[in-house]
Amino acid sequence: MTNTGYFDWKAGYDRFHDGFPGFREQPVIGITGNFGEKGCELAEGYYESVLRAGGTPLVIPPFEDRDALAGVLEHVDALLFSGGGDLNPLFLGEEPLPELHRINARRDRAELLLIRLAYDRQIPMLGICRGVQMLAAALGGAVFQDAYSQSGGRKLLKHDQQLDRSYASHTIQVTADSSILRPLLGDGPVPVNSFHHQAVRDAGPHLRVCATSPDGLIEAVESSEYKSVLGVQWHPECFVLRGDESMMPLFRWLTGEAASFRRAKALHRRVLTLDSHCDTPMFFPQHIRFDRRDPRVLVDLHKMAEGRLDATIMVAYLEQKERTDEAFLAATAKADRILTQIEEMAAANCTALDIAYTPSDLFRLKREGKKAIMLGIENGYAIGKDLSLLAHFRNRGIVYMTLCHNGDNDICDSARGQGEHGGLSAFGREVVQEMNRLGLMVDLSHAAGSSFYDALELSAVPVVCSHSSCRALCDVPRNLTDEQLKALARKGGVAQVTLYKGFLRKDGEASILDAIEHLNHMVNLMGVEHVGIGTDFDGDGGIPGCASASEAINFTRRLLAERYSEADIAGIWGGNFLRVMQTVQDNRQK
User: Fold this and answer.
1) Claim to verify: residue 283 and residue 415 sit in the same structural domain
2) How many domains does the chain have?
3) Contact call for residues 554 and 516 (beta carbons, < 8 A)
4) What is the DSSP string of 309-353?
5) Can you tell me the distance from the alpha carbon of 537 to that of 548, in angstroms, rounded to the nearest whole number?
6) Which of 307, 315, 508, 569 could be cross-linked to 378 through a Cys-Cys bond (beta carbons 3.0 to 4.6 Å apart)?
């Protein structure tokens, strides 16, 4: 405070925060408002439950301005979708039944859009009663307009109750495979309250049923893709207001997920995040729109922004074909053409994106608020037998070249080749030495073990594997053995975990949990300073939990849950890879 006769709001603000040191750390939970006689309103139980769970509630009134909604989402750490009137069936392509109750089309449109935007941004969500129905509707599921008349003759419980909302009306059973709800409420019958006639009919492709009532009606859904999304048909906030603690785990879950998301967002603001390998240029012939959220690709400007991914290395991928003079000329021309396409794409989006050639370029672009693309070549087939082409491509701006792909070439043997050279060929040895001289990173992903060890021994600077995982956990030739990983670390190199399902597990569906297991295995063998992430997005990479660039922040949240430090995560998300890049570029001979 000052003695000037008026209130010094800045000093008061600072003093307020000094008295409440944890204030700034509380996650902000956006709660959708209902419509009442006086406009937007919210029942007490919703915000009281959030407060008791350690969150800061923020009421979001129904409005449909997409830019404004996106702005709101930048300032919340989770969303709670409250109860209310019926969902307008027209939004699901259905005509209304006579049993339909009161609807509010304005609220429907706003919440359907809000859910889709939040889902793309990985924002944790909890839906209550109407809220669970909105989650299902927005994410590709279906909703009963009236469960009783649409039950197909099945006898239902009385779900549309008139009793005091703070008391249970029936029980539900949580499914055995529930990964979110079961740890919160247990596996026995759970007493709940019930005040609805609409209900989720089909959970859709992104959600799964995690609880049902004794009559088989869906009572809860959760994400089937390792995301923080949960919806319940009952009203847990009414129990909380009565002092019943049985439902508080739901709200503590939401605020806990919000706190994790908040921490990850803050980390991404401070740390440069680089994906060391993506194949998005393979889709350029389809005339994709990189400035839009194009469903044909896993990496575009919108997805990079949603996942808070700063940079990616786009490669000119070349399939291994015949090794004739004519084929070599065609391969070189194709590599040049793809690099030109990347440059043209960057130029067309120059206000939001630029090409980086050095680590310092990446950090400069992050400071400027731009996304960054680096250039690479996947398969030394691009140079055929012409060593001078290395200088040509280095001058075009590539930062690494993968010596081979799926098949032996004139440089070396491939992990999926015939062992033609027994490792590096004589020409291949010249290639490695010339790449050292030019300051070009040697990438040994796809290389046979013999080629790997030959290049590792020959190279005067550390080498990388831009997208490779662990053979000990998934026994395929493309993956690295424990001995390879340790040898790579001894020479100062890095191995980048890839998100291709076939390199994460040989049976069953791979997920982000498998990728974390591979990364942890690498860390245990190599040390955290020798690992990173090379997603292989748009080259068949992408797994549930980290299925596109928009979900990159999910990987960060998993790393935080594994108790990696910020410095560790900065290294994993590109710092280690860039250390090698800087060493290689510093070694360049003029």
Assistant:
1) yes
2) 2
3) no
4) --EEEEEEE------SHHHHHHHHHHHHHHHHHHHHHHHHTTTTE
5) 7
6) 315
What is d(CA 258, CA 271) in angstroms, rounded to the nearest whole number?
A: 20
What is residue 29's three-state secondary structure? strand
Do 279 and 206 belong together in one domain?
no
181 and 231 co-located in one domain: yes
Handedness of CA 173, 178, 184, 188 (dihedral sign): positive
204 and 91 together in one domain: yes
For residue range 144-177, what is the model confidence (pLDDT) as tens digits?
Answer: 999 999 988 788 988 887 888 888 899 999 999 9
CB-CB contact of 73 with 59 (8 Å): no
Identify the helix (H) or strand (E) that includes residue 32.
strand 28-32
Torsion angle of the four alpha carbons 70, 75, 79, 81, in this order, in degrees rounded to the nearest 10: -60
Q: Phi first, then psi: what are they for 494, rounded to 5°?
A: -135, 150
Q: Is residue 215 part of a domain?
A: yes
Q: Are residues 382 and 434 in the same domain?
A: yes
**pLDDT of 7 above 90:** no
**In whole angstroms, what is the distance from residue 465 CA to residue 503 CA?**
14
- Residue 451 Ramachandran class (φ > 0 left, ψ -120 to 50 alpha, else beta): alpha
CATH classification of the domain holding 287: 3.20.20.140
Are 554 and 581 part of one and the same domain? Answer: yes
70 within some domain: yes
Please give the structure tokens belonging to residue 239.
């129990």
Any idea of the CA torsion for 325, 327, 331, 336, to the nearest 10 degrees? 60
Q: Looking at the structure, tell me whether residues 467 and 557 fall in a common domain.
A: yes
The two structure tokens encoding residue 235: 């009203």
Which residue is associated with the tokens 């939401």? Answer: 254
* The token pair that represents 501 in the structure block: 């399902």
Residue tagged 């089937």 (tokens): 224
The residue out of 226, 243, 263 marking a domain boundary is 263
Give the percent of the chain with pLDDT over 90.
86
* Section 53-69 average pLDDT: 93
| DSSP per residue, 226-270 | S-SEEEESS-HHHHHHTT-GGGHHHHHHHHHHHHHHHHHHHHHHH
Determine if the pTM surpasses 0.85. yes
Q: What is the mean pLDDT of the chain?
A: 93
- Provide CB contacts within 8 A for 9, sequence distance 6+: none
218 and 127 share a domain?
Answer: yes
* Tokens coding 500: 């291709």
Range of the domain at 582: 271-586
